[in-house]
Amino acid sequence: MKKYISIVLIIAISLLVGCANDNTTKKDTDGKLVVYTSFYPQYYLAKEIGKDKIDIHSIVPNGVEPHDFEPSMKQIKEVQNANIVVYNGADMEHWIDKLLETIDKKEVDIINSSEFVELVKLEGRPDPHIWLDPLNMDKIGLEIKNSLVKMDEKNQEFYEKNYAELSSKLQKLNEEYEAVLKDKKRDTILVSHSAFTYITEKYDIEQISVTGISPEEEPSPKVISELIDIAKTKELEYIFLETLASPKTADIIAEEAKLEVLTLNPLEGLTKKEENNGEDYISIMEKNLENLKKALVD
Fold it and tell me: Record's PROSITE patterns (predicted)?
C-alpha cells in the first residue's frame, strides 16, 4: 500500500513541478509570511517566534504518526505558497525530497533542522528524534528566527524578542532535566520504540525498546519473550508507552512482566485532548520528566 501511495505521490509531483514557477502568491491575504513546517516540534518553534506575524501550517496534522505519513496532492500544491519551509531531516520525513522538488528554492527559505545539531547514531543510522533535547530545539529556533528576520526585516525586533523568551524557556527546561536526572538511582528504561536516544545518551540511561527507530517495526514473539525476561531480570517496575503509537505489544509485555505503564511522549504530534488542554512542547516535556523521575529517581 505504501509503495502504491509513493507512486501516486511521484506522479503528482511531476505534474506540479511544471506549475511551481507560475505561483506568485508568496504571502497570505493579510501580508503575513507563509511558513510550512513538517510536523509538531518545528511548528511549535515557528509559532512561538512568529506568533501573529506569520501564517503557519503543519504538513503532518496533529494526531497522525509522522513516521508513516504521506502528504496529499493538495498539500504538495499548497506548500508552493510558502516563504519558509522547516523540516526535521535525518530521514524522518521520507517524502521531503520529492516535496521540495516542487518548490522554487530561489524564493523559499528551506531549513533542514538536522543540519544545525549534533546527530546521535542509533542502530548504525542517525536518530531523527533531535527535538527531544531542549538545547537542540534552541539551536533550531535560532535558525527559524534568523529566517523570519531575513524574510521580514521590518519585524526583526518582534522576532528577536520572541526567540529570546523561547530560548530562556528551553534553557530552563534543560536545567530541570539535568537537576533531576543527576540523582537517578536506576539507569534503565523500557520504552515502546527507540525515540529517546537524545535523552538517554545525555544522561547515561540505557534504553531498551520494543521496536526500533520506527514504531511500526513489530517485534517477533522471540523478541517479546526476551524483553519480558530482561524486565524481570533487571527488576524493572515500569514500561513507557507513547500517545500516538499502538500499545498492543507493550501492553502484552506490561501484563506478563507485571509492569506499571507510564507515558513517555515523543512529541511527534499532539493528541486532540492535549490540544484542547492547551498542552505544548514545554508542558509535555515537563510531564515526561516527572515520569522519568518516578522510574529512575524516586
Answer: PROKAR_LIPOPROTEIN (PS51257)
| Contacts with 33 (C-beta within 8 Å, 6 or more apart), sequence order | 27, 50, 53, 54, 55, 83, 84, 148, 151, 152
Q: Which residues contact 12 (CB under 8 A, 6 or more apart)?
A: 73, 76
What is the per-residue pLDDT across 99-153, written as a single tens digit (0 to 9) for each? 999 998 899 999 999 999 999 998 889 999 999 999 999 999 999 999 999 999 9
Report the C-alpha gap between 166 and 39 in whole angstroms. Answer: 18
Dihedral (C-alpha) 245, 64, 115, 211: value to the nearest 10 degrees?
20
Cβ–Cβ < 8 Å for 205, 182: no
Sketch out the chain's domains with CATH numbers.
31-175 (3.40.50.1980), 182-295 (3.40.50.1980)
Query: In this structure, are residues 31 and 80 in contact, taking their beta carbons and an 8 Å threshold?
Result: no
Taking a C-beta distance cutoff of 8 angstroms, is the pair 159, 181 a contact?
no
203: its cell numbers: 544522561
Q: What's the pLDDT tens digit per position in 29-67? A: 588 999 999 999 999 999 999 999 999 999 999 888 888
Residue with cell string 493579510: 30
C-alpha cell at 147: 529566517
Helices (H), the chain: 2-20, 40-50, 73-79, 96-100, 134-151, 156-181, 197-200, 221-233, 248-256, 272-276, 281-296
